[in-house]
Design goal:
The chain is an alpha+beta fold. The longest helix is centred in the last third of the chain and has 16 residues.
C-alpha cells in the first residue's frame, strides 16, 4: 500500500476524501480558542495532501513545526484516519492498520497566510485540497470520519474480499476445517453464506469473514 517518498504528488484540484473540493465552509468546526490579544480564533477543518505512505511522518513534522513557530493556538487536531483490518494467514489471525484515505490528512486550523505556508512547506506535505484557495470541510463530515475510525478500532474488518463461487476453508467455529463454496457475500455485514457438505448432505450456513480463508 505504501508508496515511496518520491511518488507523484496528487493533483490539488481533484476531489478528495470529503467527496468534493467544493465543500461548504459554513460547516467548519465551531471550536475556538482565545488569542493573547483577546480575539476569538475559529478553527476549521481542511484536507491536506501528503505523499502516500508518509501521512504519519507528515503529521508529526507538522505538529513540531507548529510548536516551534508558537502557533499552537491556531491549530487543533490533525487526523490520519485509520481502521483495523484482520486477515487469516495459514489459519492464524493477523490484525494490521489500514488508512481510509492514503495520501490525505485532516488539519483543524485557523487559515491565514502564516498557517497556510507553514502547512504547505512542511516536508512530506504537497499542499491543500483546493490549491491556494482551500475550502473548509463541514463538521458533519469530520464527525462521520471519526465515527468510522472508532468503529474500525472496535471491530476490525476483514481485509480479504470474497466473491460468489470462491472456494474457502472454515478456520473457526463448529465447522472448522470444512471446505465450502461461497454462495452469497454480505460485505456490509462482513458475512458470507457458504454451502458445505456435512454427513453427506449439502448445508448452507452463514459465517463471519474472519471465520474463513480462501482455499
Amino acid at each position: 500500500m505504501d508508496n515511496g517518498e518520491h511518488g507523484a504528488a496528487p493533483d490539488e484540484t481533484q476531489s478528495g476524501p470529503s467527496g468534493s473540493s467544493q465543500s461548504s465552509a459554513e460547516g467548519g468546526s465551531s471550536e475556538s480558542l482565545s488569542s493573547s490579544s483577546g480575539t476569538t480564533l475559529e478553527k476549521k477543518w481542511y484536507i491536506v495532501h501528503t505523499y502516500s505512505g508518509h501521512e504519519n511522518k507528515a503529521k508529526l513534522t507538522l505538529l513540531e513545526r507548529v510548536r516551534n513557530a508558537n502557533l499552537n493556538e491556531y491549530f487543533g487536531d490533525v487526523l490520519v484516519p485509520t481502521e483495523s483490518v484482520m486477515e487469516v494467514v495459514k489459519g492464524q489471525r493477523r490484525t494490521t492498520t489500514r488508512k481510509f484515505f492514503p495520501g490525505y490528512m485532516f488539519v483543524q486550523m485557523v487559515l491565514d497566510d502564516r498557517t497556510f505556508h507553514l502547512v504547505k512547506n512542511t516536508p512530506k506535505i504537497t499542499g491543500f485540497l483546493g490549491g491556494t484557495k482551500p475550502t473548509a470541510v463541514p463538521e458533519r463530515e469530520i464527525t462521520g470520519v471519526q465515527t468510522n475510525m472508532n468503529e474500525g478500532k472496535a471491530k476490525p474488518k476483514a481485509r480479504i474480499v470474497f466473491e460468489a463461487g470462491d472456494s474457502v476453508r472454515v478456520v473457526e467455529g463448529p465447522f472448522a476445517n470444512f471446505s465450502a463454496k461461497v454462495e452469497e457475500v454480505k460485505a456490509d455485514k462482513q458475512k458470507i453464506k457458504v454451502s458445505l457438505s456435512m454427513f453427506g448432505r449439502t448445508t448452507s450456513v452463514e459465517l463471519d469473514f474472519n471465520q474463513v480463508e480462501k482455499a
